[in-house]
Structure formats: structure tokens, C-alpha cells
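Q: What would this chain look like folded?
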Amino acid sequence: MNNSISAPTPARPGSTLHIWTPEDKTFWEAEGQAIAKLNLWISVPSLFLAFAVWQLWSVAAVNLPQLGFKYSTNQLFWLAAAPALSGATLRIFYSFMVPIVGGRRWTAISTASLLIPALGIGYAIQDPTTPYPTMLILALLCGLGGGNFSSSMANISFFFPQERKGSALGVNAGLGNLGVSVVQFLSPVIISVGVFGVFGGEPQHIVNKAGEHVSIWAQNAAFVWVPWIVLTTVIAWFFMNDIADAKASFAAQAAIFRNKHNWLMCLLYLGTFGSFIGYAAGFPLLIKSQFKDVNPVAYAWIGPLVGALIRPVGGWLADRLGGARVTFWNFIVMAVAVFGVLYFLPKTSGSAFALPFGPEAGSFTGFFLMFVVLFLTTGIGNGSTFRMIPVIFMNLKTAKVQRNDQVAMAGAVKEANTEAAAVLGFTGAFAAYGGFFIPKSYGSAIAATGGPEIALMCFIAFYVLCILTTWWFYARKHAEQPC
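A: My prediction, written as C-alpha cells:
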């Protein structure tokens, strides 16, 4: 009789992981690390495409008047803001899908769904008689891309040990967030060339700012993502993994709604990610409304690029210095940067809330640099707040468990990971509403007062609230949950 015990069969791409213990250093070094990295590096392009589709309207809305669409400024701001509204709402449901459906399956399904708005916008934008309600529906459908963030971050959180979650989540979100910048940078380039030939449709003829008659293919801004969506969907389906231990019902995950730290972190993440996606969505139209002689698409992509690239650094800093400390000082800099934006705005717009000091005609250079600082801090804060969440919930679940009770500790760790993943997703859902409220606040403030100043003043007040919340609950000495 053979008494030897055979080793577990190595996990295959596309299979379900029945044994997944990333906190076990032997398992992590031997097998877990390679599997986790494979899933991370497939998740990144999936999330990148989701953000690109989500933010299509931030640049498409700017070009619509040139293409013959007779929409008002407020209607254009609505098109830029609507994807964030639907995306944030979808994130609430997406937050809980990975433990129910499986990370591999849901990544493939949610990535494939991006084909709906990409193809729809590509066809609708070719016809200037397309009714505004149709365009608004297509803008809302772009929210399918926004929803993906919550499920993606929840999924990746299961793969990495506690000490590496901050960096892993920072890489996933940071490189995924690059989709915002790339869509704003690539769109003006790709629409100038008929790269799809007869399959891409006829060009539109417009007059540019130099008074020249030129041909563009506006539909390319949407069509360019279609082949990559198809390819990434196939790769996700066949090469990612589901984790058996990550399965949980909605009822098990819904425990987060009774925990005040879920709601406190929603507030803080609204201040970081909500600011990032809101500023990204509204930046091109804000530039166009305040600095008439500046081409917004030439500059708007730089801010989101900075915010996306710095996010992994925010996670890395939080792993080493503590998430609460990084988040606290980060919000202080954000409040100062918004005041800088107010200082450099033109004072000639007739706004009743314009600052009584600063350059009368405004300074685009100062305005732009202040926004770069804002995007920088949103990225750092995104990474640091997402590092706080796993630590908080791990501490909450393991604090009352005897360290030598391995069975109880394993159960507490599993429960902590499940709830932390749900909180990561739900806070992402809550924060995404910032992508709606920030550009809509600009539009409403301009319509009511002649300038965006009152909206920016409200943002400063909100950041002060975030500073106080972070300090009281997480950063001060003897805080309730130091992290």
C-alpha cells in the first residue's frame, strides 16, 4: 500500500482555485505569487479598457458642436457627467458580484459588456441629427465601464497577502486609471485618420480653429477600443482564475452596511477617487468655459495621467508609513490646491463669488499647475485609502480571537477578507458619484453665478471634513482604528 500523500495539483489558467492561502509564505513563494501576478496583469488591461469607455464622453462632448450637434453647454456637461452617475450606481451591484459569480467569469462578462457603448457611440456620433435623449442613453451606458472598477478591485484583493494588498491594489487601479488619460490623449489623434477604412464609416467635414476645412472620423474615438475589448475578454475567460474560498452570498457581504467604518471610508474615498474621476470628467469643459483661447484636449489628458501613475506610489507609501497618515496630509494638500485653482481663475467672468485678489484675467499656467497638483493628490489618496480598508477590517475581525486558536483565526481572516473586498467595491461605488457631481457642479455654478467658484469653495469645505474624519478615527493618537 502506498502511504505517500500526493502534492496538490498545480492550478491551471482558467481553473477554480480550491486551495488558496496567500498568507502562508511557503505556499505564496511556491505557487501563489505567480498565480496572483497572472490574474493581476490580466485585470489591469481589463480595467484600463473599462475606464477608457467610461470616460469617452469627457472628450466626445467637447467635439459635438463642431460636428453639427445643437446642444447647449449645460447639455454637454450632462453628457460628460451621466456616465459617472450610471457607473456609480452599477458599482453598487458590481461590488458583490465576484464572490457570487467568480472573479474570472465576472471579469470576462463585464469586459465584454463594454462593446455595447463603444459600438453604439461609434455609430450615433456619425449622424448630427441623433436626438439628444439617444446620446444621453449612450452616455449612461458608458457607466458599464465605471461599474467594473468595484468588481476588479474586490477580485484582486483576494489574491494577495495582507502585506502586499496596498501595492497590488495600487497597481491594478493606477494602471487601470490610465484609461482616463489615454482616451483623452488618443482621441484627438485617432479621429484624424481613417484607420478602419470602409468599416469605420464616412468622415465628417469641419472647420478647425485655424479656419481650415478638414476631415475627421469622430467615430474612431469609440471604435478603436472594440478589438481590444474582444481580445481582453477572451484572455480573461481562459487565463484568469476563480477562488473557491472567495465565494460568499450577498447576505454574508451585506454585513458591511452595519459597520460604520464602511461609511466612513466611503466618505474618504469619495474625497480621493471621487475627486479624480470628477475632475477628469469635467476638466476639458472647465478649461473651455474659463480660458476661451486654450485648446482643452491638448492639456486635459495630462492631469488624469499624473493621477493614475502616482496611485501605486500612494499604495506603496501607505504600506510603509500607514494609510491614515498619508491620507490625512494628502487631504490638506488637496484643500490648498483647490484654493490655488480659485486664485488663478479669471476674475472677468462676472461671477459673484470670484476672489477679490489674484490675476484679473486669470492665469492658465497657474490654473493648470494647481490641477496637476490636485490630480497628483487624488492618485496618492486613492492608493492610501484603499490600503486602509483591508487593515481596518482585518483588525476588527481578529481583535477578539485568541492567537493560538488557528481554526477561529482562519475563520476570522476569511470573514475579514470577504468583508474588506465588499467594502473596497462599495466604497468605489459610492465614490464614483463624484464623477457626476463635480462636472455637474461646474455647470450649475456657471449657470447660476457666471463662474465655477462656488462649486470649488464647496469642494474645499468637503476636504476639511475629510481631514477631520481621518484624524479623529484613524490618524490621531489613541484613534479608534489606527491604520
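The chain has 19 helices and four strands.
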